[in-house]
Design a protein that fits this description.
Elements: H1 8-33, H2 38-51, H3 53-57, H4 61-75, H5 80-95, H6 103-121, H7 131-142, H8 147-160, H9 184-205
Helix pairs in contact: 1-2, 1-9, 2-4, 4-5, 5-6, 6-7, 7-8, 7-9, 8-9
Amino acid sequence: MEAGQSFLPGLIEACSAAIAHNADHLCLLDQEIGDGDHGTNMRRGCEAVFEERHMLAGLPLPQALERIGMTLVMSVGGASGPLYGTLLVELGRGLAGEEPGVQKGFSSALSRAVDAVARRGRSGAGEKTLLDVLYPVQSEVRMQSTLDNIAIEAQAAAERTVAMKAERGRASFLGDRSIGHMDPGACSCALLTGAICRYLGETEGA
């Protein structure tokens, strides 16, 4: 990976905008089964990364991803900061030494990063967490699906959490009452995935 990731500031801006535009919705989702602050926390984290966007563009991509991950750990409250932070830190570490543009290398790095999130959160698929979006997204990446299809699957995966019973986090204390509500972390993960896919698609088409 070469320094000067010119696409990175725009990508960060797209992600930050997606969270900012949906922060109230994320808080409403979290009020149903959590503390009600997921949108506020995610917006704060994205704003912190946004402030560093130009500095990050001067780093090799693996290092930039690690720095973003650490920024999220330090700025996002609750459980989401460590989970998103772990995802990006491990993705950066996994990409270090990989050849730029190699799909297989990115897929393998993403798979390891998602597994690291599962270990950090002591959770797995079907437990109503952001992993219920990350695992399907990782599967789409492995199959080399189009950006549009990855974004569509991410949103569909978030919607599938509505029917799930929460097994981890504050929502798990609600038991069956957690059924019928979308997981806020899965929703933010789908929003970010969609923003990334749209931005990369527009950049490729430019």
